[in-house]
Amino acid sequence: MQDIDNMGLSAVKHIVAVASGKGGVGKSTTTANVALAMAAAGHKVGVLDADIYGPSQGLMLGVAPGSHPETIDGKWFVPIVAHGIKVMSMAFLVDENAPMVWRGPMAAGALQQMLLQTHWGELDYLFVDMPPGTGDIQLTISQKAKLSGAVVVTTPQDLALLDARKGIEMFAKVQVPVLGIVENMSTHVCSQCGHEESIFGADGGAKLASDYGTELLASLPLSMAIRQQADAGNPSIVAEPHSSAASVYAELASALEAKIGHVQNGPSISIEE
User: String of b and e for 124-143 (b: at least 16 CB within 10 Å)?
Assistant: First the structure.
């Protein structure tokens, strides 16, 4: 029998949003790997895929296509367990090829159901893989979940940094602390000659962190292995736990644990129109 006292978010200690201003910067890959790194460190971890229109955590965490969560009393979803962590995603509720042709309020309503009507049980950390942008989904998460903080993922490219600034400003408006910045695709190392080059620009993430009084938590290269492992459902932490990429994700998890430990109280929410 399921413990009704542990339904919803009642037994979740910390909720962390992983966000980006624009898509394609590696936010979902970061979410999957840092969640697995936290689990490898002995924590109870969950992942909520909040990208209603383009869910990807099922694929990245190796959940078999066509998998659907069980339900309790027709009201509570039981999250699917993948690589030892609990996962909930819109991909588990609809055909994986079906487009979600929904207006914002419908998407926000679906997210609210997955967030609040999933039997998460006891978790130390619930990571929320946010969609890009600063719209209805972001505001719903900020209003309905007591966020311990947010991680903003970007690349060094000026366009990505511009949108990342908007994400940081959004979290400031809803009084959610930004725990730090993760910079993906910092450099590219040629597989043929070993030459390293900052093809998307240099030091963008560090400058962004400095401008907003936070810190650059991690920098990761543009890596074929990281991409291939995520696409195969075995992120770097699982596929190559002793690789340099896995070490960076483990250090990122450790840094987040330390930073969240300094958050004394959950933020209050003050939405400005």
Answer: bbbbbbbbbbbebbbbbbbe
As assigned by CATH, the class of the 4-259 domain is: alpha beta
Lowest-confidence range among 57-66, 109-118, 184-193?
184-193
Rounded to an integer, what distance in angstroms lies between the CA atom of residue 52 and that of residue 56?
10
Could you give the CA distance from residue 44 to residue 13 in angstroms, rounded to a whole number? 10
Q: Residue with structure tokens 């809803």?
A: 174
pTM: 0.90
Question: In the chain, helix, strand, coil percent, each to 5?
Answer: 35, 20, 40
Query: Which tens digit of pLDDT belongs to each residue from 131-148?
Result: 988 778 888 898 889 999
Rounded CA-CA distance 182/140 in Å is: 23
Domains of the chain, by residue range, sit at: 4-259
Other C-beta atoms within 10 Å of 68: how many?
A: 11
